[in-house]
Design a protein that fits this description.
Number of helices: 20
Number of strands: 9
Order of helices and strands: HEHHHHHHHEHEHHHEHHEEHEHEHEHHH
CATH topology of the largest domain: TIM Barrel
Helix content: 40-55%
Low-confidence stretches: 1-6
């Protein structure tokens, strides 16, 4: 074994358990640029090349993964999302991290300290002040601005997550700045169009969508027209992917007249029944996916999250504060119905399926492969380990399930799904796990050493080239 670097845990061969794994990572994975095709980064901060005030802001400012862990460690809310002082929050995080061993946050945090700041010391309550001061001194340097942080990780393309009503002003500003080489594309995320059962907000949202499209939306046909106009606008500003989130997949037949009737009822401000909402959502999913195909976009279906479970915190802080969990709804029948109808009408675009509940892993893998048609290698994808599954064992399981039922070589690889500009070592984490799995198979004789050249190329493809070709970047 070569000598370790960084802390004992984050050595040069961290997660790499064989010479084959080390060779695959060093020669084929480590140097690949990053294409982060799904994240929740703030494009305004990229456009303005934001400089963070301190490490607490960049680490704790919007990271609900950390907030969730801190609450579990007994940290009061003012040191999580409240008005606690900066070092107080950092100290609470350092204490929480020591209690978070075996949580992925433990590895991610130390990877970030080593990769961005060159800090090889373990973060714990005793080292917190020293590390806090070191990080803050480094963050004051110009090259540690938002753009600098992205350059450090060899990022080539980012896809943010954007509502159809967004004017994309910050994406336009980024594209116009010829001094910045990283592509920052919007992604189409029309979830609010689906939320017809949100009586309190739906009508107002449809009004804002009409304003963005330059028209009044009076009917379901108008809604589709407005969405089409907004898609054209997004495409003109670099969008190449759609992204959809579903608690479950409603399994309902629908007619155009039924969709018109239900939409008209909602526009009047009348509440719709749960059955009407299910019918509308089934039809809306179909039409949105059909439109994605017309645009030539890839689409991503994120399935199985119950959001904002803690009503008290939702009322106080709003969404995305660390109170979401796995759903346990049925997904196969509704997904089969929608994908089958799209395929039958020759309007099923390149599609990635992600599950949050591990009970659905084999379901989504097997469902995706029902609808490959030979037109595009890897057209239908079982997506990367997502959210609660985005950890060592979850990534291994995703690779196993994909390999057993599909073609690992066509996989489009990892994403951050993050709001943090320090999250990009998660790509390294995935790449090391990928190389270790392949290396172990080579060591055990489950893969032929004679195919090492192809396995090396396959590693490069999964880390970089497959995503570049799949999304047409």
């Amino acid at each position: 074994m070569r000598p370790p670097w960084g802390i004992n845990m984050i050595g040069k061969d961290f997660l790499l358990e064989s010479d084959y794994a080390q060779e695959l990572y060093d020669k084929h994975a480590a140097s690949q640029p990053i294409i982060d095709y799904h994240n929740h980064l703030n494009p305004q901060m990229i456009a303005e090349d934001y400089q963070f005030e301190d490490i607490s802001e960049v680490w704790l400012g919007g990271d609900h993964y950390k907030w969730r862990a801190m609450r579990a460690n007994g940290v009061e809310e003012r040191f999580v999302t409240g008005d606690g002082d900066s070092f107080g929050k950092f100290q609470k995080w350092a204490d929480t991290l020591q209690h978070a061993m075996r949580n992925p946050l433990y590895h991610w945090t130390h990877l970030e300290l080593v990769r961005y700041f060159g800090i090889s010391e373990v973060l714990n309550p005793a080292s917190a002040k020293r590390i806090y001061d070191q990080c803050n001194a480094i963050l004051k340097q110009k090259e540690f601005s938002v753009r600098g942080l992205l350059r450090m990780m060899n990022v080539e393309v980012l896809c943010t997550t954007d509502d159809p009503i967004d004017d994309l002003r910050w994406h336009k500003a980024i594209a116009a700045d010829k001094s910045f080489e990283i592509k920052v594309n919007p992604s189409w995320r029309p979830d609010k169009v689906m939320a017809i059962d949100d009586k309190a907000n739906y009508v107002a949202y449809i009004g804002r969508l009409g304003e963005a499209a330059g028209m009044e939306i009076k009917s379901f046909a108008d809604l589709l027209t407005a969405l089409s106009k907004r898609q054209e606008y997004f495409a003109a500003h670099g969008c190449k992917a759609a992204d959809h989130g579903f608690n479950d997949f409603p399994d309902r037949d629908f007619t155009e007249s039924a969709l018109e009737s239900i939409f008209a009822k909602a526009l009047k401000g009348d509440g719709v029944t749960s059955e009407e909402a299910a019918v509308f959502k089934s039809g809306m999913i179909f039409h949105l996916a059909k439109m994605n195909n017309e645009m030539g976009w890839a689409q991503q279906f994120h399935i199985g999250a119950i959001r904002n479970n803690n009503r008290k915190l939702f009322k106080k802080l709003g969404p995305d504060v660390g109170c979401d969990s796995m759903a346990d709804d049925k997904v196969a029948a509704g997904l089969s119905r929608i994908l089958g109808k799209l395929d039958e009408e020759n309007c099923l675009t390149r599609t990635i399926l992600y599950n949050l509940n591990p009970k659905d892993s084999e379901v989504l893998m097997s469902m995706a492969y029902n609808f490959n048609d030979g037109s595009v290698p890897g057209k239908m994808q079982y997506g990367a380990a997502w959210w609660f599954l985005d950890q060592m064992e979850g990534m291994r399981q995703q690779l196993e399930i994909l390999s057993h039922g599909g073609l690992l070589s066509r996989f489009v690889g990892m994403l951050t799904d993050s709001r943090s500009f320090l999250s990009f070592p998660r790509h390294e984490y995935f790449r090391r796990i990928l190389c270790n799995e392949l290396g172990n198979d080579l060591k055990r004789g489950l893969l032929p050493k004679e195919e090492m050249e192809f396995i090396g190329k396959m590693t490069e493809d999964i880390c970089y080239r497959n995503a570049k070709e799949y999304f047409k970047f």
